[in-house]
Amino acid sequence: MYINAPTENITVLPNWPRPSDEIVRALAEFPPALIGDVRNRMDMMSAEIRCLTPGIRLAGAVLPIQVWEGDNLGIHRGLDEAKPGDVLVVSANSVTNRSVFGGILAEICQSKGIRGVIIDGAVRDIEEMTAMGIAVFARGVVPAGPSKNGPGAVGKPVACGNVVCNPGDIVIGDQDGIVVVPLSEAGGTLQRLPLQADLERQILARVKAAAQ
To answer: Residue 42 carries which DSSP code?
Structure first.
């Protein structure tokens, strides 16, 4: 913990399986829109979860965190469980009148090799975090800071942007938004992506040829 606060009311689940770096990198070669297409356009987060750090893409393993509205004690505790390659996926109950994530937490994330954060709630210090190069997706931005009282949970499945995110699932994000790939379905999804990408290239080639 980077703060001196009791965390007895933060539930922490045991360790969970995480995807290999190889499969995360392979999926990250494709945009979320294409991944969503091969997944029958399911498992894509609400458009209200927006990329707030332009030009910074996101790919990693879900570390799910549930926090109380306007409170980020669960995030602080979750950082103790974080491993390089994780993405913090935080359900803050869609509340946007209090930020639960900002520059200090972003610095901690970078020091631990966390690849980005997705907050179903609000963040602050967005200019600072953009300059840092950390990928931040959230429902809103507000300067008002959080409390640190709990309760919360780490490692428990959460709903974020209307999608259930389980620990170890894979999230891929760009300026279009976020797609979630369940860990158990990552291999099958990856197998179908080259065919879909090739199909789209063929369509584009026909369009360009017809315009000449």
So the answer is: -
Indicate the Cα dihedral angle 47, 87, 30, 26, nearest 10°.
-160
- How many domains would you assign to the chain? 1
Pairing relationship of beta strands 58-67 and 152-154 according to DSSP bridges:
antiparallel
Domain for residue 2, yes or no? no
| Chain Cα centroid distance, residue 24 | 13
CATH code for the domain in which residue 179 is found: 3.50.30.40
Residues 50-84 have pLDDT tens digits of 999 999 999 999 999 999 999 999 999 999 999 99
pLDDT tens-digit series, residues 14-39: 889 999 999 999 999 999 999 999 99
User: Three-class SS of residue 118?
Assistant: strand
Give pTM, 2 decimals.
0.94
The terminus-to-terminus CA distance of the chain in angstroms comes to 62
- The counts of H helices and E strands in the chain are 6, 11
The reply to whether 56 falls in a domain is: yes
Range of the domain at 136: 10-211
